[in-house]
Write a structure and sequence with these properties.
This protein has 191 residues and is α/β, with parallel strands linked by helices. It is 27% helix and 20% strand.
Length: 191
């Protein structure tokens, strides 16, 4: 499905996400339409294994390596410089991409089965809360996506934390399941 430009909804460790091949411009455009999302807003990605990171990240700074070692797999999205081949619609013109190795085994298996990174924006209409109930997902999106993977009710709660680990200190884009204090303590241990 993903390899032919399809758009799906799948469970993650917190909420349901909308998945597509990030290198398929038509699939990514569909995500913006499905969500009613303004173009230019970056779309995060998941990977099924650390070996996939090189497909999307241009470099992995030491600070990112520390966070990956301590919080992956799990609900932490790390901002990296994107590879040059990353479509602008995914990075929103920033040249950066948010990536996480999810704690959800089904989400990792989805990426592994596809053979690459998968988009991981929340399955919701922009501005509305994320969805943890597959019945709600079906009611909102059944005729708008190509497939819905029902993983039951997900844990819900806070979404993944989004952080850009800079040498000068972490920049928090979105606070979430991994706390700011946990991230700062992890990075301070290196000093």
């Amino acid at each position: 499905m993903l390899s032919t430009g399809g758009v799906i909804i799948y469970p993650t460790e917190t909420l349901y996400g909308i998945g597509a091949d990030p290198f398929s411009g038509s699939a990514v455009d569909r995500i913006f339409k499905i969500k009613g999302r303004e173009m230019g807003v970056p779309i995060p990605l998941i990977i099924g294994s650390l070996g996939m990171l090189g497909k999307v990240a241009g470099e992995v700074p030491e600070e990112a390596e520390l966070l990956m070692k301590n919080f992956w797999p799990g609900p932490l999205t790390i901002i990296f410089r994107a590879v040059k081949s990353m479509p602008e619609s995914v990075h929103g013109g920033t040249g950066k991409v948010g990536v996480r190795l999810p704690g959800s085994e089904p989400a990792r298996k989805l990426s592994i089965a596809f053979g690459g990174p998968v988009t991981a924006t929340s399955a919701n209409v922009s501005g509305e809360p994320g969805i943890s109930d597959p019945d709600v997902v079906r009611k909102k999106f059944m005729n708008r996506v190509d497939m819905i993977i029902d993983g039951g009710i997900t844990a819900g709660g806070a979404p993944s934390t989004v952080v850009e680990p800079l040498r000068s200190g972490p920049v928090f884009i979105r606070k979430g399941a991994v706390t700011e204090e946990e991230i700062r303590l992890c990075l301070e241990r290196r000093r």
